[in-house]
Amino acid sequence: MVAMILTAALAIPAAAQTQVPLKGAFQGNDTVTPPTLTQSITGIGTLVGQFSSTTVLTLTASGGTGSAHWIAANGDSIDTTVVGSPEHVPMSPCQVVGAQPEDSYAKVTEIHTITGGTGRFAGVQGSFTLTLYHDVVPRSDGTHGTCGSYSGTITPPGVAH
Known about the structure:
The longest helix has 16 residues, at 2-17. The chain has one helix spanning 2-17, and strands at 20-33, 36-45, 49-60, 63-72, 77-89, 105-117, 126-135, 144-154. By secondary structure, it is mostly beta strands.
Protein backbone atom coordinates (compact mmCIF):
# COMPACT_ATOMS: atom_id res chain seq x y z
CA MET A 1 0.00 0.00 0.00
CA VAL A 2 2.82 2.42 0.87
CA ALA A 3 4.46 1.65 -2.48
CA MET A 4 1.25 2.51 -4.36
CA ILE A 5 0.87 5.84 -2.55
CA LEU A 6 4.54 6.71 -3.08
CA THR A 7 4.32 5.79 -6.78
CA ALA A 8 1.22 7.98 -7.23
CA ALA A 9 2.84 10.91 -5.39
CA LEU A 10 5.97 10.72 -7.54
CA ALA A 11 4.00 10.31 -10.79
CA ILE A 12 2.24 13.69 -10.47
CA PRO A 13 5.43 15.82 -10.53
CA ALA A 14 6.81 13.68 -13.38
CA ALA A 15 3.62 14.22 -15.39
CA ALA A 16 3.80 17.96 -14.72
CA GLN A 17 7.24 18.04 -16.35
CA THR A 18 5.98 16.42 -19.58
CA GLN A 19 5.68 18.97 -22.36
CA VAL A 20 3.10 18.97 -25.17
CA PRO A 21 3.09 21.05 -28.37
CA LEU A 22 1.41 24.45 -28.41
CA LYS A 23 1.11 26.00 -31.87
CA GLY A 24 -1.23 27.96 -34.06
CA ALA A 25 -1.81 30.80 -36.52
CA PHE A 26 -3.46 34.20 -36.24
CA GLN A 27 -4.36 37.55 -37.82
CA GLY A 28 -4.94 40.89 -36.20
CA ASN A 29 -3.70 44.41 -35.81
CA ASP A 30 -1.24 46.53 -33.89
CA THR A 31 -1.98 49.96 -32.50
CA VAL A 32 1.15 52.04 -31.98
CA THR A 33 1.16 54.94 -29.51
CA PRO A 34 4.86 55.37 -28.70
CA PRO A 35 6.31 53.99 -26.57
CA THR A 36 3.42 51.48 -26.40
CA LEU A 37 2.36 48.90 -28.98
CA THR A 38 -0.87 46.98 -28.40
CA GLN A 39 -1.39 43.79 -30.42
CA SER A 40 -4.91 42.39 -30.82
CA ILE A 41 -5.04 39.01 -32.57
CA THR A 42 -7.45 36.12 -33.11
CA GLY A 43 -6.69 32.67 -34.41
CA ILE A 44 -6.80 28.95 -33.88
CA GLY A 45 -4.31 26.68 -32.22
CA THR A 46 -3.63 23.40 -30.50
CA LEU A 47 -4.91 23.13 -26.91
CA VAL A 48 -6.62 26.55 -27.04
CA GLY A 49 -8.83 26.09 -30.12
CA GLN A 50 -10.18 29.44 -31.28
CA PHE A 51 -8.61 32.23 -29.26
CA SER A 52 -8.09 35.94 -28.88
CA SER A 53 -5.04 37.60 -27.42
CA THR A 54 -3.96 41.07 -26.39
CA THR A 55 -0.28 41.91 -25.95
CA VAL A 56 0.98 45.22 -24.61
CA LEU A 57 4.64 46.02 -25.28
CA THR A 58 6.80 48.92 -24.21
CA LEU A 59 8.97 49.66 -27.24
CA THR A 60 12.72 50.21 -27.02
CA ALA A 61 15.41 50.77 -29.66
CA SER A 62 16.06 47.01 -29.81
CA GLY A 63 12.48 45.70 -29.57
CA GLY A 64 10.07 45.59 -26.68
CA THR A 65 8.98 43.92 -23.46
CA GLY A 66 5.57 43.42 -21.96
CA SER A 67 2.83 40.94 -21.23
CA ALA A 68 0.06 39.09 -23.03
CA HIS A 69 -3.31 37.60 -22.14
CA TRP A 70 -4.61 34.70 -24.28
CA ILE A 71 -8.27 33.67 -24.01
CA ALA A 72 -9.65 30.38 -25.34
CA ALA A 73 -13.21 30.26 -26.70
CA ASN A 74 -14.51 28.83 -23.40
CA GLY A 75 -12.89 31.62 -21.34
CA ASP A 76 -9.87 29.66 -20.02
CA SER A 77 -6.77 31.83 -20.28
CA ILE A 78 -2.98 31.92 -20.37
CA ASP A 79 -0.85 34.87 -19.24
CA THR A 80 2.70 35.43 -20.50
CA THR A 81 5.62 37.79 -20.28
CA VAL A 82 6.96 38.83 -23.68
CA VAL A 83 10.31 39.88 -25.10
CA GLY A 84 10.22 40.90 -28.77
CA SER A 85 12.70 41.91 -31.44
CA PRO A 86 11.95 43.19 -34.96
CA GLU A 87 13.74 43.01 -38.30
CA HIS A 88 12.75 44.54 -41.64
CA VAL A 89 11.60 42.10 -44.36
CA PRO A 90 10.32 42.90 -47.87
CA MET A 91 7.21 40.70 -47.73
CA SER A 92 4.99 38.63 -45.46
CA PRO A 93 4.52 34.86 -45.97
CA CYS A 94 0.99 35.16 -44.58
CA GLN A 95 -1.78 37.45 -45.79
CA VAL A 96 -2.10 40.67 -43.83
CA VAL A 97 -5.67 41.93 -44.17
CA GLY A 98 -5.70 45.36 -45.83
CA ALA A 99 -2.10 45.19 -47.08
CA GLN A 100 -1.08 46.61 -50.45
CA PRO A 101 1.51 44.94 -52.75
CA GLU A 102 4.00 47.77 -52.21
CA ASP A 103 3.84 47.56 -48.37
CA SER A 104 6.87 46.48 -46.36
CA TYR A 105 6.94 44.55 -43.13
CA ALA A 106 8.64 44.16 -39.80
CA LYS A 107 9.12 40.52 -38.84
CA VAL A 108 8.77 40.46 -35.06
CA THR A 109 9.98 37.48 -33.05
CA GLU A 110 8.44 37.32 -29.59
CA ILE A 111 9.41 34.91 -26.82
CA HIS A 112 6.42 34.25 -24.55
CA THR A 113 7.01 32.70 -21.11
CA ILE A 114 3.88 31.46 -19.34
CA THR A 115 3.34 33.12 -15.95
CA GLY A 116 -0.16 31.89 -15.12
CA GLY A 117 -3.47 30.65 -16.36
CA THR A 118 -7.09 29.94 -15.49
CA GLY A 119 -9.42 26.99 -16.00
CA ARG A 120 -7.67 24.08 -17.68
CA PHE A 121 -4.53 26.25 -18.00
CA ALA A 122 -4.19 26.86 -14.24
CA GLY A 123 -0.66 25.89 -13.23
CA VAL A 124 0.66 25.21 -16.75
CA GLN A 125 4.28 26.04 -17.48
CA GLY A 126 6.18 26.52 -20.71
CA SER A 127 7.09 28.94 -23.42
CA PHE A 128 6.57 29.56 -27.11
CA THR A 129 7.94 31.67 -29.92
CA LEU A 130 5.53 33.88 -31.83
CA THR A 131 6.51 35.15 -35.29
CA LEU A 132 4.44 38.12 -36.37
CA TYR A 133 4.51 40.09 -39.62
CA HIS A 134 3.62 43.75 -38.96
CA ASP A 135 2.64 45.86 -41.99
CA VAL A 136 4.64 49.08 -41.47
CA VAL A 137 2.14 51.03 -43.60
CA PRO A 138 -0.87 51.91 -41.43
CA ARG A 139 -4.41 51.22 -42.59
CA SER A 140 -6.92 54.06 -42.98
CA ASP A 141 -7.95 53.58 -39.30
CA GLY A 142 -4.34 54.02 -38.13
CA THR A 143 -3.79 50.38 -37.13
CA HIS A 144 -1.20 48.10 -38.68
CA GLY A 145 -2.29 44.71 -40.04
CA THR A 146 -0.56 41.60 -38.68
CA CYS A 147 -0.46 37.88 -39.25
CA GLY A 148 1.74 35.04 -38.11
CA SER A 149 2.14 31.87 -36.12
CA TYR A 150 3.46 30.57 -32.81
CA SER A 151 5.05 27.33 -31.66
CA GLY A 152 6.37 25.97 -28.37
CA THR A 153 5.59 23.58 -25.56
CA ILE A 154 3.67 23.65 -22.30
CA THR A 155 2.84 21.20 -19.55
CA PRO A 156 -0.40 19.37 -20.37
CA PRO A 157 -3.49 21.39 -19.45
CA GLY A 158 -5.28 20.01 -16.40
CA VAL A 159 -2.24 18.13 -15.01
CA ALA A 160 -1.47 20.81 -12.43
CA HIS A 161 -4.95 20.64 -10.82
